[in-house]
Amino acid sequence: MALATGGPEVAAPVRGPSAVRADVQGLRALAVGLVVCYHLRPEWLTGGFVGVDVFFVISGFLIIGTLTGEVRRTGRVRLLDFYARRIRRLLPAATAVLLAITAAVFTLLPQSRWPVVLREVVFSALNAQNWLLAVLSDDYGHATVGASPVQHFWSLAVEEQFYLVIPLVLLAAALLAARRGGGPVRYAVAAVGAVTVVSFAFSVWYTPVDHGAAYFVTPTRMWELGVGGLAAMALHRLRPGPSARLLLGWGGLAAVLVSAFWFTTDMAFPGWIAALPTVGTVAMLVARDDSLARLLGLRPLTYVGDVSYSLYLWHWPVIVLLLELTGRDVLSRYQVVAAAVLSLALAALSKHFVEDPFRHRRNRKRTTYAIGAGLVVVTVAVASGGWASAESTLAALRTKPVLDARYPGALALDPSRARPVPTGVALAPAPAVAEQDGPLGDLPNDCNIYDMGGRVTSCMYGDPGAAKTVVVVGDSHAAQFSSALAEYVRHEGAGRWRVKVVVRNGCPFTSVPPSEAGTPIAVCADENRLKLDLIRDLDPDLVVTAAMSPESYRADLNWTWESPERQVEGYRTMLAALSEADIPVAVIREVPRPVTFVAACLERHPDRRAECDTPRELAVGSPTDPLAEAATGLPGVRVVDLTDWICRADVCPAVVGNVVVYRNNHLTDTYVRSLVDPLVAALGLR
User: Fold this and answer.
1) Percentage of the chain modeled with pLDDT above 90
2) One Pfam family this chain carries (predicted)?
3) What does the CA dihedral 174, 177, 182, 188 come to, rounded to 10 degrees?
4) Number of domains the chain contains
5) Which of 97, 412, 594, 679 fits 408 for a cystine, CB–CB 3.0-4.6 Å?
6) pTM of the model as a whole
């Protein structure tokens, strides 16, 4: 992420192209240190992600400062020279890391993750990773098992897009100045200022609208680079006295450190709160305080600043791959030290054997562009080929397995079963595709809409003219049982029962919906009122509902309820309404939750499946299920507990009857289909 450590790009704009400010290198060290510490153990530095914001300000300060100096001296911007310098400076090291990660994908990562990571390698090579992550709304939290080793390339993409746009903005300002007369720098300041103001306004508006995407997209970040550029433009006019320099310098450092220790991922970011580390960084850059400069100019800090770009590139894949190798969710203290040392060593090697040779090589521009294009093409070709091959391999594994004597699944837990479970049989589904083994092909979108706000619709399975109807309503933990019921009404229950599925991911059947960042998801409550009317009009013979536990909502989505009592109240309101309408209801108690990513664990330990099991007491979790508690005492409402069909007496296995039990916190569809008999019996459909 850092720019050049020598040469024109790092010059303090008012001193000419040969000067290098040691304190700026120290600031780079601070920025990369915050990011690395945050990624190693986020609980140590909950807001360490603001190091990226510090980098953005430094980049804007140096790049716009250098380009403005060129405009001031020559009245123009040499675009081809500028882009050639960027290619020599940034592309070789980034390519080396991306190719190393591509090799690691095939040797260290589970097969299920190959297409996802290789796709991100392609987008990273094309400097579009931030837009991919914005579309996916990935959470830029700390590394865990399953994190992408190239996720951090999003910030490089933002900077590269900035490098494409801002020279054109300054060139346009210079041309306008030449046409209308007047100083070109004045037009440049106006142009950069306009971009900065518009970007900041958009960031403040868009962050609360969609803070997941807002974190990554370029328009919400341009203002941070722009503020740094404006500081560079004004630097020659700023002459703060000794006291002001002292206050600006140390006050700016305090602002960055307060942000690093105070901010958390629960805050909507960037938005207006990003102004604190941004303004703090600007203050340090313009202060030029001698005492702060001496601190930031210490040789250890300036060395880390020198290698900060490579350190940023290498540290994240080192952490992610170490977590994959150990199967841990967080690094131990010894592993933290090992990851830090290895990252710094790789950064030093990359700096001295990749960055410097390419940066100092004075090729003709045509040669530089040819090398740059070649590096991008090779990376994209290698990653794309691997991506396509991996997708083809996984597609062949996604066929729904037939449940027969080799794959009894849940029936292997039947105490009356006499036949042993066959051994030496491949697991179903294959662990590499278990995460995609969802209900009814993961339910078509007109049954299970993933984005809130769509129309309430439903799907019907079985004979439309069947005498009896069962309705499945709730969130994805209710939807997961759809396949078992659809299987029943298509075969044994054909002609007698039909199933209507009315579900919404992340929206349990409640009048009190979960809250995101303290704001209730009102559309969920609105939709549930419509669903309640739909069910009452249909007057089914049975309603089946289930809901993800509050612990899972908090852990997986960071959604919460005001209080446990309010959560129970919301469920009870809906259940009571059905009870008063004399509509029978079966509440399926929350299924046990594994403490590991089962599919990935089975890929890592194909011969040691027991390592992927979860003790029953941990999997079952809290003995209180809010939905089950809400059902207590309501006429016609009963609770169905399938725990004994998922877990043994002391453990909840990852594999039962040669069938993989879990996909993330849900049951695999294959395992649910093996539950047809016990589920139908428990619901009283026979």
Assistant:
1) 56
2) SGNH
3) -50
4) 2
5) 412
6) 0.80
Residue 662 is assigned to a structural domain of this protein: no
Q: Which residues are registered as beta bridge partners of 388?
A: none
Angle at 419 between CA 437 and CA 600, to 5 degrees: 30
Rounded (10°) CA dihedral 418, 423, 428, 430: 160
pLDDT digits (tens, 9 = 90+) for 239-292: 888 889 899 999 999 999 999 999 988 888 999 999 999 999 999 999 988 899
- 418-447: buried (b, 16+ CB within 10 Å) or exposed (e) per residue? eeebeeeeebbbbbbbbbbbbbbeebeeeb
Confirm whether 657 is domain-assigned: no
Shared domain check, 540 and 493 = yes
Mean pLDDT (the chain, rounded): 87
The angle that helices 275-287 and 242-262 make with each other, rounded to 10 degrees, is 150
Rounded to whole angstroms, the maximal C-alpha distance in the chain is: 94
Select from 36, 46, 6 the least CA-distant residue to 24. Answer: 6
Least confident range of 3-17, 261-275, 391-405: 3-17
Specify if 568 maps to a domain.
yes
Beta strand 519-520 with 559-560: parallel, antiparallel or unpaired? Answer: unpaired
* 429 cis-preceded (ω within 30 degrees of 0): yes
Of 389, 410, 433, the one marking the end of a domain is: 389
Pair 643, 500 in one domain: yes
Give the structural domain span for 474: 425-592+623-647+673-683
Angle, helices 299-306/308-326, rounded to nearest 10 degrees? 80
- pLDDT at position 576, please? 96
Same domain, 376 and 429: no
Q: Are residues 435 and 359 in the same domain?
A: no
Q: Of the candidates 343, 367, 389, which is a domain's last residue?
A: 389
Residues 536 and 448 in one domain: yes
